[in-house]
Amino acid sequence: MADVARLAGVSAQTVSRVSTGHPGVIESTRAQVLAAMKELGYRPNSAARALKRGEFRTIGVILFTLATTGNSRTVEAIADHAAREGYAITIIPVAAPTQDGVLGAFTRLGELAVDGAIVIMEVHLLDTTRITLPPGVQVVVVDSDAGDTYTVVDTDQADGARAAVRHLLSLGHHTVHHVTGPASSFASERRAAAWRSVLTDAGRPVPPALTGDWSADSGYAAGLQLAADPSCTAVFASNDQMALGLLRAFHERGLAVPGRISVVGFDDIPESRNFLPPLTTVHQDFAEMGRRCVQMVLRQIRNEGTTPGTTLVPTRLVERSSTAPPPPPS
């Protein structure tokens, strides 16, 4: 810093103000200092600055897996919006969805020095019905039922599922079959509950749900079972990957989609528009999820005040070519 000050002909304090983005430096002097920094290859010591301020400009992200579409897309969006705010992210995977696993992740985050944390809690913990986080931590929880205790951000899973089922009923289908995600998943649980409630409220029969694991293979296995049921004319899959497996199973069994069976997915992954046929699905706004997560954790970091509660990010139905009225009775 002293070398930069000598080359630029300014004080070390002025160099410090320029390096921290302080507004009280005239533009000509700022340009002079920046030119000296560039010539000397000077970079501020961010670690030293962080220790001095007690601010690390890093957000920790705790999660159980990056393998699912929802988690990977959410983390991508969090990283993007954090970068726009001048923050980096540190990812801490949790080996098992347990209370001890989550607390261990917070311990590691403390060692890595972060300003706040976002916890992607997409599944129920194995050893407790309620998550307990360390006190005094600036934290936002994603995809959980802990809104009475913590700041929670989630996709409006129920509204998206209701839109999918109502769409199929509006086309004239007598009922709608459902392929769920894993039983441990909050999202799958909410989508299944909404599917069931729409059918019940409409006075329609509720077929037994088939359980998948989010993979196309599990959707394919469910599709082979549904293809053997002549009464099945419409299926709501809890994600697009399982819907893809359904499409393959129906194709192999000679059942035209949507001529014989209509299919709706959930997520609106980029590939869904290129399925055969292009998939009608529920769009999740992952970019908005990431923005709200970052916005809310930064409000806590900046002491701007937040209260416990759940913020729901809206969904919307995207109609494509995989749904149509049911075939006429034979």
Automatic annotation (TrEMBL):
Source organism, top-level taxon: Bacteria
Keyword Glycoprotein in record: no
Domain (HTH lacI-type) ranges: 1-53
SMART domains, sorted: HTH_LACI
InterPro entries: HTH_LacI (IPR000843), LacI/GalR-like_sensor (IPR046335), Lambda_DNA-bd_dom_sf (IPR010982), Peripla_BP_I (IPR028082)
Sequence segments annotated as region (Disordered): 305-330
A GO term, aspect molecular function: transcription cis-regulatory region binding
Keywords: DNA-binding, Transcription, Transcription regulation
Signal sequence, renumbered to the chain: none
CDD domains: HTH_LacI, PBP1_LacI
The protein, known as: DNA-binding LacI/PurR family transcriptional regulator
Lineage: Bacteria, Bacillati, Actinomycetota, Actinomycetes, Micromonosporales
